[in-house]
Amino acid sequence: MRSSELLQMKIFLIGFMGSGKTHRGRQLSQKLNLPFFDLDEQIVNSEGKSINRIFEEEGEEYFRLKEKEVLNIITESHSSFIMACGGGAPCYFNNIEYMNQSGVTVWLNTPLQTLFKRLAKERDQRPLLKSLTDVQLNTFIIRKFSDRKIYYEQAKVLIEDDEHITLDQIIEKIFHA
Ligand code: S3P
Predict the structure, then answer these.
(1) pTM for the complete prediction?
(2) Ligand 1: does its nearest atom lie under 6 Å from the Cβ of 17?
(3) What is the 8-class DSSP label of residue 9?
(4) Residue whose CA is at the smallest distance from ligand 1 atom 11
(5) Confidence class of residue 7 from pLDDT cuts 50, 70 and 90?
(6) What is the mean pLDDT of residues 119-133?
(7) pLDDT tens profile 36-63
(8) How far apart are CA 18 and CA 20, in angstroms?
């Protein structure tokens, strides 16, 4: 794939919470000069409340419906972008098939120990993790990851170790998808 074609791409970053989707998404957007969307942030803007509050007041099922709706709206209304998707986004409805039909999906498969280290520091901001102890968090990551792997594995591009790969190497892999 040539760089001129890349400018007409819809790139979906997927992976577990804490895998670095927002961070890498912003970097890719700057480097490739494509608009960046954080799916969670777009949901927060459209609902006028935090993800935590949406879960508390409306429940997870409502959140998943909104997530799908906002994913569809952004995807249909823009020809090119980088999108950081929430960790559960590819695992509900037909979202992963939809993303694969609409553009290039990139799975940041960050090692579980790294996810644990990152998420242990940030659990208050995440409704699914808020009340967990360290031991519970560890078990949660292992179980949830094993449930979600079959969806993440459908990504067209696999980034194995986000901490040790350069941005240019990620771009190279996307170009060759
Ligand atoms: C979720 C991940 C979060 C957010 C919500 C649910 C999940 O996004 O969408 O808290 O089910 O894995 P990040 O992966 O950006 O943290």
Answers:
(1) 0.95
(2) yes
(3) -
(4) 88
(5) low
(6) 93
(7) 999 999 999 999 999 999 999 999 999 9
(8) 6
CATH number for the domain harbouring residue 137: 3.40.50.300
Summarised one tens digit per residue, pLDDT across range 8-21 is 899 999 999 999 99
For residue 160, how far is its CA from the centre of ligand 1 (angstroms)?
20
* pLDDT of 3 higher than 60: no
Q: Which atom of ligand 1 is nearest to the CA of 85?
A: 15
Task: Indicate whether residue 40 lines ligand 1 (CB < 6 A).
Answer: yes
Q: Residue 177 domain-assigned?
A: no
- Residue 132 Cβ inside 6 Å of ligand 1? The answer reads no
Q: How many domains does the chain have?
A: 1
Q: String of b and e for 69-103 (b: at least 16 CB within 10 Å)? A: ebbeebbeeeeebbbbbbbbbbbbeebbebbbebb
**Spatial contact of 170 and 106, defined as CB atoms under 8 Å apart:** yes
Among 26, 38, 40, 124, which is best to mutate for testing ligand 1, by the most ligand atoms less than 8 A from CB?
40
Provide the residue range defining the domain that includes 111: 3-172
Instruction: Please tell me if the CB atom of residue 87 comes closer than 6 angstroms to any atom of ligand 1.
Output: yes
Q: Could you give the residue ranges of the DSSP H alpha helices within 51-160?
A: 51-58, 60-77, 95-102, 112-122, 134-152
C-beta 51 within 6 A of ligand 1: yes
